[in-house]
Amino acid sequence: MKMKKNHNSSFKRSLLVGLITLSAVFVSCDHELDINSDPNNPTEAPLATLLSASEVNLTYTLGGDGTRIPATIVQHYAGHRGQPLNYGQYNITSADTDGLWGNLYDVLMDLKTIEDRTIVSGDKIYLGISQVLKAYTFSVATDLFGDIPYNESSKGALGNITPAYDKQEVIYPALITTLDQAIANLKSGAGAKPSTADLIYNGDIVKWEAFANSLKLRLLNHLSKKNPTQALSFLQTNPSLIATVTNNAKVTFGTVANNANPIHQFDVLSGRKDNAVCKTLVDNMKSLNDPRISKYFLPVTNNNSGLAGQYLGNLPGNDTDDSGENLFSRVGPSYASINSPVILLSAAEVEFIKAEIYFRANDLSNSKIAYEKAIANDFAALGVTDATYITNPLVAFNNTLARIMEQKWITMYQASYESFVDWRRTGFPILTTPKTNRTGGVTPRRLPYPQIEINVNRASLQAGPGIPVPYVTLLTKVWWDN
């Protein structure tokens, strides 16, 4: 399933070269030299290189295309022109998702290679790590698109570019099974630890197990409309979870252009200047005196408008041009600096998940504890100290799901694709309808299948979920959203 790249692919290629080359420096070889092999022309990439590539590609994709469209739908972002403005007006077409779809399946192809080779070699540590990343990547894809190629999707290397689509209700149990297998493989201790080739946890098996359990908890909680007690049952088994900010699952980017953070590349290095942050989020945080504002946003910098130094968001769908950066704030230093991390799953998110699960079980005491710990974790991750925030009457736990989800929406500014899941499941936060939009004022509930699938895999698409109808398919619900 080789897909075409988006306009930002040149940035990604240079990034991959920079980080993978760096990681390869640390990969050691303890086997004897095979004089029948040409070391300058290897027949296959080392597992370490494939792992680094998978981690970089996944986080770069999620921090880039995987963030921009969902971030606009859930009103973290509000671009003022070009492609970001189109997203804000729900003018989201199949051409917009080509890059995202292709990059996710590129990651999955590399992970399948790792899986195939480690099954043969018996390296269960590498296998377990690849399975966690596989479950994560597939989960993002199915949450955004619904039914997707799953069982046949990894056969592209064998010439199958027209894989069948699988239903989401089949995919989700398979992902849970994959995570259970990953945990068992990791705990076996069999194989070589990837060390510095693992850009997330440096080969720490205990942290990978906690990541796998935390992802499992996230996915079970996604099924709150289908099976509201399943996540609680798992939580009651007391699984190891990501509990401290030092164990957040993330990839931290570099300090030069060819391995820079993806948001920094799109917003700063590209020179586009067409994205902005959303007034819905900025005004919400200002009303709460949220001390994270300076971490989340850059103040208006140019003084032509007299607004310099203020934190201001653009209205959803508003096309007032701000190429001079006189009117609206941009993504701030914590997530758009050149070396900012892209976070896959955090201790803060885990506690918000627990708060929701306990709330649904009417365990308000534990829900409150988890809610307050979630906010504290996000503050700690950002280096923010403010003991009064949690006592603000508009922030303090008030025994409602709305309060939990609104605070989680603020925290998940760093992973808007997950906020998109939350909004669809719970209806929170309350969003502002863009004055100009292509969907009759109805907020999208999924992304359209990419144009490349319509062109190349049309028969499978027709036999499965169907060819997307412009601006109509956006409003149809995925399986777990019904």
From TrEMBL:
Q: InterPro entries attached here?
A: SusD-like_2 (IPR041662), TPR-like_helical_dom_sf (IPR011990)
> Which PROSITE patterns does the protein's record reference?
PROKAR_LIPOPROTEIN (PS51257)
Q: Which superkingdom heads the taxonomic lineage of this protein's source?
A: Bacteria
**What SUPFAM superfamilies does the record point to?**
TPR-like
* Any Pfam family matching the protein: SusD-like_2
- Name of the protein in its database record: Starch-binding associating with outer membrane
